[in-house]
Input
Amino acid sequence: MRCNADRMIECLIKAQLTELEAIRDSKSAVEKPGQTSQGPDPMVVTLSRGYGAMGCQIAHLLAEALELHCCDCLILQEVARRANVDQALVKALDEHVSIINSHVDDKGQHWWKRLINRYSFTHADYQDHLAKTILSISLHGGVILGRGANFILGPERAFRVRVVGSVEACAKRVADRESISIERATDKVIEQDYERTEYVKKLYDADINDPLFYDLIINTDRYSDVETVEIILNAMQQARFALPSDAYESIGVSA
Output
Protein backbone atom coordinates (compact mmCIF):
# COMPACT_ATOMS: atom_id res chain seq x y z
CA MET A 1 0.00 0.00 0.00
CA ARG A 2 2.78 2.41 0.88
CA CYS A 3 4.54 1.76 -2.43
CA ASN A 4 1.41 2.73 -4.35
CA ALA A 5 1.13 5.96 -2.38
CA ASP A 6 4.78 6.77 -2.96
CA ARG A 7 4.46 6.34 -6.72
CA MET A 8 1.35 8.51 -6.87
CA ILE A 9 2.88 11.29 -4.80
CA GLU A 10 6.11 11.20 -6.79
CA CYS A 11 4.10 11.70 -9.97
CA LEU A 12 2.09 14.56 -8.48
CA ILE A 13 5.05 16.58 -7.17
CA LYS A 14 7.57 16.05 -9.95
CA ALA A 15 6.61 19.27 -11.75
CA GLN A 16 6.82 21.34 -8.57
CA LEU A 17 10.26 20.01 -7.64
CA THR A 18 11.48 20.80 -11.14
CA GLU A 19 10.19 24.34 -10.67
CA LEU A 20 12.06 24.63 -7.36
CA GLU A 21 15.33 23.51 -8.96
CA ALA A 22 14.89 26.09 -11.71
CA ILE A 23 14.35 28.85 -9.13
CA ARG A 24 17.47 27.85 -7.23
CA ASP A 25 19.52 27.69 -10.43
CA SER A 26 18.37 31.16 -11.46
CA LYS A 27 19.32 32.59 -8.05
CA SER A 28 22.74 31.00 -8.22
CA ALA A 29 23.32 32.49 -11.64
CA VAL A 30 22.89 36.09 -10.43
CA GLU A 31 24.95 35.81 -7.25
CA LYS A 32 28.16 37.77 -6.99
CA PRO A 33 31.44 35.91 -6.44
CA GLY A 34 31.69 34.79 -2.84
CA GLN A 35 27.96 35.13 -2.20
CA THR A 36 25.77 32.17 -1.38
CA SER A 37 22.03 31.79 -1.18
CA GLN A 38 22.27 28.73 1.01
CA GLY A 39 20.61 29.12 4.39
CA PRO A 40 18.61 27.02 6.81
CA ASP A 41 15.82 25.03 5.24
CA PRO A 42 12.35 26.52 5.76
CA MET A 43 10.63 25.11 8.84
CA VAL A 44 7.49 23.17 8.00
CA VAL A 45 5.08 21.47 10.39
CA THR A 46 2.13 19.40 9.19
CA LEU A 47 -0.74 19.05 11.64
CA SER A 48 -3.23 16.24 11.15
CA ARG A 49 -6.16 16.30 13.54
CA GLY A 50 -9.25 14.51 14.69
CA TYR A 51 -12.47 16.52 14.64
CA GLY A 52 -12.84 18.31 17.96
CA ALA A 53 -9.23 17.65 18.99
CA MET A 54 -8.43 21.42 18.94
CA GLY A 55 -6.41 21.14 15.74
CA CYS A 56 -7.20 24.64 14.46
CA GLN A 57 -6.37 26.37 17.76
CA ILE A 58 -3.18 24.35 18.13
CA ALA A 59 -2.09 25.09 14.56
CA HIS A 60 -2.53 28.85 14.99
CA LEU A 61 -0.74 28.91 18.36
CA LEU A 62 2.10 26.81 16.99
CA ALA A 63 2.46 29.05 13.94
CA GLU A 64 2.65 32.07 16.23
CA ALA A 65 5.31 30.42 18.39
CA LEU A 66 7.39 29.41 15.36
CA GLU A 67 6.85 32.74 13.57
CA LEU A 68 5.29 30.98 10.60
CA HIS A 69 2.10 31.31 8.58
CA CYS A 70 -0.75 28.98 9.51
CA CYS A 71 -1.97 27.52 6.23
CA ASP A 72 -5.58 26.34 6.25
CA CYS A 73 -8.05 28.30 4.11
CA LEU A 74 -5.06 29.66 2.18
CA ILE A 75 -4.60 26.18 0.72
CA LEU A 76 -8.11 26.13 -0.71
CA GLN A 77 -7.71 29.62 -2.14
CA GLU A 78 -4.45 28.70 -3.84
CA VAL A 79 -5.80 25.43 -5.25
CA ALA A 80 -8.77 27.33 -6.69
CA ARG A 81 -6.47 29.99 -8.13
CA ARG A 82 -4.12 27.46 -9.73
CA ALA A 83 -7.01 25.48 -11.21
CA ASN A 84 -9.00 28.61 -12.13
CA VAL A 85 -12.15 27.20 -10.56
CA ASP A 86 -14.73 28.36 -8.04
CA GLN A 87 -13.45 28.10 -4.48
CA ALA A 88 -16.79 26.57 -3.47
CA LEU A 89 -15.98 23.55 -5.63
CA VAL A 90 -12.57 23.11 -4.02
CA LYS A 91 -14.17 23.41 -0.59
CA ALA A 92 -16.68 20.71 -1.51
CA LEU A 93 -13.89 18.31 -2.41
CA ASP A 94 -11.70 19.35 0.51
CA GLU A 95 -11.17 16.48 2.98
CA HIS A 96 -14.33 14.75 1.75
CA VAL A 97 -14.93 11.78 -0.51
CA SER A 98 -18.71 12.05 -0.28
CA ILE A 99 -21.09 14.93 0.29
CA ILE A 100 -23.95 13.37 2.17
CA ASN A 101 -26.04 16.49 2.68
CA SER A 102 -25.50 18.13 -0.71
CA HIS A 103 -28.25 20.43 -1.95
CA VAL A 104 -30.22 19.05 -4.90
CA ASP A 105 -31.77 21.58 -7.26
CA ASP A 106 -35.13 21.38 -9.04
CA LYS A 107 -33.50 19.42 -11.86
CA GLY A 108 -32.36 16.74 -9.45
CA GLN A 109 -28.69 17.68 -9.74
CA HIS A 110 -26.25 18.36 -6.92
CA TRP A 111 -24.82 21.90 -7.00
CA TRP A 112 -21.23 20.64 -6.77
CA LYS A 113 -21.77 18.34 -9.78
CA ARG A 114 -22.88 21.38 -11.78
CA LEU A 115 -19.64 23.11 -10.82
CA ILE A 116 -17.56 20.08 -11.81
CA ASN A 117 -19.29 19.95 -15.18
CA ARG A 118 -18.83 23.68 -15.69
CA TYR A 119 -15.10 23.65 -14.99
CA SER A 120 -14.22 20.09 -16.05
CA PHE A 121 -12.51 19.82 -12.68
CA THR A 122 -11.92 16.25 -11.51
CA HIS A 123 -10.74 14.75 -8.25
CA ALA A 124 -7.42 14.02 -10.00
CA ASP A 125 -7.10 17.72 -10.86
CA TYR A 126 -7.73 18.53 -7.21
CA GLN A 127 -4.98 16.09 -6.15
CA ASP A 128 -2.51 17.57 -8.59
CA HIS A 129 -3.09 21.20 -7.59
CA LEU A 130 -3.22 20.32 -3.90
CA ALA A 131 0.18 18.59 -4.02
CA LYS A 132 1.75 21.50 -5.89
CA THR A 133 0.22 24.02 -3.49
CA ILE A 134 1.51 22.20 -0.42
CA LEU A 135 4.97 21.89 -1.95
CA SER A 136 4.96 25.61 -2.76
CA ILE A 137 4.09 26.42 0.85
CA SER A 138 6.88 24.15 2.05
CA LEU A 139 9.43 26.19 0.09
CA HIS A 140 8.71 29.16 2.36
CA GLY A 141 7.82 27.38 5.60
CA GLY A 142 4.58 27.20 7.50
CA VAL A 143 2.24 25.18 9.67
CA ILE A 144 0.01 23.22 7.29
CA LEU A 145 -3.31 22.08 8.71
CA GLY A 146 -4.77 18.85 7.37
CA ARG A 147 -5.11 17.89 3.68
CA GLY A 148 -2.75 14.94 4.16
CA ALA A 149 0.25 17.26 3.84
CA ASN A 150 2.40 14.83 5.83
CA PHE A 151 1.94 12.21 3.09
CA ILE A 152 3.04 14.66 0.41
CA LEU A 153 6.06 16.10 2.22
CA GLY A 154 7.27 13.08 4.19
CA PRO A 155 9.81 13.14 7.04
CA GLU A 156 12.48 14.84 4.93
CA ARG A 157 10.50 18.06 4.41
CA ALA A 158 8.35 18.43 7.53
CA PHE A 159 7.88 17.71 11.22
CA ARG A 160 4.67 15.69 11.20
CA VAL A 161 2.21 15.99 14.10
CA ARG A 162 -1.19 14.40 14.70
CA VAL A 163 -3.56 15.44 17.49
CA VAL A 164 -6.42 13.17 18.45
CA GLY A 165 -8.92 12.70 21.26
CA SER A 166 -11.61 10.37 22.48
CA VAL A 167 -15.04 10.70 20.89
CA GLU A 168 -16.42 11.80 24.27
CA ALA A 169 -13.88 14.58 24.84
CA CYS A 170 -14.02 15.81 21.24
CA ALA A 171 -17.82 15.76 21.20
CA LYS A 172 -17.96 17.86 24.37
CA ARG A 173 -15.72 20.50 22.78
CA VAL A 174 -17.81 20.52 19.61
CA ALA A 175 -21.06 20.78 21.59
CA ASP A 176 -19.71 23.74 23.60
CA ARG A 177 -18.26 25.44 20.53
CA GLU A 178 -21.29 25.06 18.29
CA SER A 179 -24.01 25.19 20.97
CA ILE A 180 -25.49 21.85 19.93
CA SER A 181 -26.53 18.77 21.85
CA ILE A 182 -23.92 16.25 22.90
CA GLU A 183 -25.72 13.64 20.78
CA ARG A 184 -25.46 15.75 17.64
CA ALA A 185 -21.85 16.63 18.46
CA THR A 186 -21.00 12.95 18.84
CA ASP A 187 -22.51 12.23 15.43
CA LYS A 188 -20.49 15.08 13.88
CA VAL A 189 -17.22 13.83 15.37
CA ILE A 190 -17.81 10.33 14.05
CA GLU A 191 -18.90 11.61 10.62
CA GLN A 192 -16.02 14.04 10.18
CA ASP A 193 -13.38 11.57 11.34
CA TYR A 194 -14.78 9.01 8.93
CA GLU A 195 -14.64 11.50 6.05
CA ARG A 196 -11.04 12.45 6.82
CA THR A 197 -10.01 8.80 7.11
CA GLU A 198 -11.59 7.98 3.76
CA TYR A 199 -10.13 11.13 2.18
CA VAL A 200 -6.58 10.06 3.08
CA LYS A 201 -7.27 6.50 1.97
CA LYS A 202 -8.57 7.70 -1.41
CA LEU A 203 -5.90 10.32 -2.11
CA TYR A 204 -2.83 8.65 -0.63
CA ASP A 205 -3.76 4.98 -0.30
CA ALA A 206 -2.77 5.24 3.36
CA ASP A 207 -4.22 4.96 6.85
CA ILE A 208 -4.53 8.35 8.58
CA ASN A 209 -4.10 6.62 11.95
CA ASP A 210 -0.88 4.77 11.08
CA PRO A 211 1.67 6.11 13.62
CA LEU A 212 4.58 5.58 11.22
CA PHE A 213 3.36 8.56 9.17
CA TYR A 214 3.94 10.95 12.09
CA ASP A 215 6.82 12.16 14.24
CA LEU A 216 4.53 12.94 17.17
CA ILE A 217 0.97 11.94 18.13
CA ILE A 218 -0.77 13.63 21.07
CA ASN A 219 -4.03 12.69 22.78
CA THR A 220 -5.47 16.08 23.71
CA ASP A 221 -7.92 14.65 26.27
CA ARG A 222 -5.38 15.51 29.00
CA TYR A 223 -3.97 18.77 27.63
CA SER A 224 -5.07 22.29 26.77
CA ASP A 225 -4.17 23.82 23.43
CA VAL A 226 -1.25 25.73 25.00
CA GLU A 227 0.04 22.61 26.75
CA THR A 228 -0.18 20.69 23.50
CA VAL A 229 1.85 23.34 21.67
CA GLU A 230 4.44 23.22 24.45
CA ILE A 231 4.74 19.45 23.97
CA ILE A 232 5.21 19.95 20.21
CA LEU A 233 7.91 22.57 20.77
CA ASN A 234 9.70 20.26 23.19
CA ALA A 235 9.60 17.44 20.64
CA MET A 236 10.90 19.71 17.88
CA GLN A 237 13.79 20.79 20.08
CA GLN A 238 14.65 17.16 20.72
CA ALA A 239 14.53 16.61 16.96
CA ARG A 240 17.09 19.43 16.64
CA PHE A 241 14.92 22.06 15.05
CA ALA A 242 16.14 25.60 15.68
CA LEU A 243 13.19 27.32 17.33
CA PRO A 244 12.77 31.11 17.66
CA SER A 245 14.31 32.35 20.90
CA ASP A 246 10.91 33.49 22.22
CA ALA A 247 8.88 30.51 21.00
CA TYR A 248 7.76 29.48 24.47
CA GLU A 249 7.22 33.02 25.72
CA SER A 250 4.89 33.75 22.79
CA ILE A 251 2.42 31.18 24.10
CA GLY A 252 2.83 32.27 27.73
CA VAL A 253 5.07 29.53 29.11
CA SER A 254 8.69 29.47 30.28
CA ALA A 255 11.29 27.66 28.20
